[in-house]
């Protein structure tokens, strides 16, 4: 699936026309997750569909969802912008940036500097970089280029081998362990538990995917995660604001300092 997505991206980049700059106020994802609202930071994801689950939310209003996330105390918002496989849009991200006062991260398959330029222009504060989408030296170039543009990066890995390869090349400020196996699309939080020991102390550690309950939050926190990225479980809630409260077992905003 990942190979298929990357091939699609290459074709999209060939015809990509850069948009006009969106005028917005930028916020630091790193600082937001460091100064989190609860015991574990929350990146709440705006996602209509996925290749493995199909359409997750039929009645999809990205701006309203983002407003509910902010009201519910999310520290940051992740927006799927991939059109072909996730039914996302860059326009969703730009529209969300105009109405929220927390960091917004672009989640897509970034493999080219032209996409980094696009990410800046649509108003994102940060973006996801995925190990194994490009050779590791090219990933480092994309990472450095993003930071030159004042765009932060969450670097995502899916296996111990990928994490070793990443850390042999450089140490990102933020590392995400995705609990989903990209070959089988199955999720297991043991991925976070087993790989957590390899995360350098100086990197902010985010656990991604497969987080549905307070017990899941507790498990990844014990493993050392400073933050979680949660999409599907919140997107299936009628009221995403209440969904956040349930996910954190009623832990209110600001109850952690």
TrEMBL record:
Q: Which family does it belong to?
A: Belongs to the TrpC family.
Question: Which pathway is this protein assigned to?
Answer: Amino-acid biosynthesis; L-tryptophan biosynthesis; L-tryptophan from chorismate: step 4/5
What UniProt keywords apply to this chain's record, in alphabetical order? Amino-acid biosynthesis, Aromatic amino acid biosynthesis, Decarboxylase, Lyase, Tryptophan biosynthesis
Q: Which GO terms describe its biological process?
A: L-tryptophan biosynthetic process
This protein's record includes keyword Lyase = yes
Task: Return the protein name.
Answer: Indole-3-glycerol phosphate synthase
Keyword flag Translocase:
no
Recorded hits in SUPFAM superfamilies, A to Z, give: Ribulose-phoshate binding barrel
Q: What is its EC number?
A: 4.1.1.48
Q: Which domain of life is it from?
A: Bacteria
PROSITE patterns, A to Z: IGPS
Domain annotation Indole-3-glycerol phosphate synthase: ranges: 3-244
Its EC top class is lyase
- Annotated membrane-spanning segments are none
Under the GO molecular function aspect, what terms does this record hold?
Answer: indole-3-glycerol-phosphate synthase activity; phosphoribosylanthranilate isomerase activity
UniProt-listed Pfam families: IGPS
Which catalytic reaction applies to this protein? 1-(2-carboxyphenylamino)-1-deoxy-D-ribulose 5-phosphate + H(+) = (1S,2R)-1-C-(indol-3-yl)glycerol 3-phosphate + CO2 + H2O
Q: What is the lineage of its organism?
A: Bacteria, Bacillati, Bacillota, Bacilli, Bacillales
